[in-house]
Amino acid sequence: MQVNKRLTIPTVEEVLAFGESIGVSGVTIAPGYEQWWNVLHEIGHFAVKPDGYIALWREHGGMGVPYMNWFAKNGIIKPDDPTPDEWGTRAWCLKALELKGWVSPLQCGRWSTNDWDFRQRNNPYLWMKNQVTSRSHKFYKNGFDQLTAVGIDFERGILRPTKELVTVAWQPVLGWQPRQVAKVESSMCLN
What we know:
By secondary structure, the protein is mainly alpha-helical. Helices cover 28% and strands 6% of the residues. The chain has 5 helices and 2 strands. It has helices at residues 12-21, 36-47, 51-59, 86-100, 143-149, and strands at residues 163-168, 171-176. The chain has a two-stranded antiparallel ribbon with strand order 1-2. A hairpin with a 2-residue loop joins strand 1 and strand 2 (171-176). Helix 1 (12-21) packs parallel to helix 2. It starts with 11 loop residues before the first helix and ends in a 15-residue tail after the last strand.
């Protein structure tokens, strides 16, 4: 669906295909969160995490979106997570909208305006450029800085981390990842 001469409203299938094109697939979509913008946000949670992080999270029974919940078991002190958090995911999604030429969900005719509470299906704060600052990230408060810290660079077509998670004692840190990073070329001019 064309919104104006430049921006389009994607389908869920297009969003899922985009996720697969960058190596993110099999993302579980909770009932009630089937709108394309919710699907993009869930893909973003996986896209900002290094592959090794996701593998370790799954190995320890991870459910939902990847985060360091496996450390909270058996009395182990949970270390600080150096990877992007919710606010890094928000920044990633905003960059993905620009890259793909997709309209902001807030400007989408299908957006529900009566669902503004925090953590609700259509939380508008997820899509506001001024809502990417974390209150709790130990290393980088700004979501865009979180992306840079793991090597994500949309301007160069790098949409997944180029740094992998390694541990020093119990503290995970980001180290350079030896694998090749797939670059995504945009078919649109983003000037």
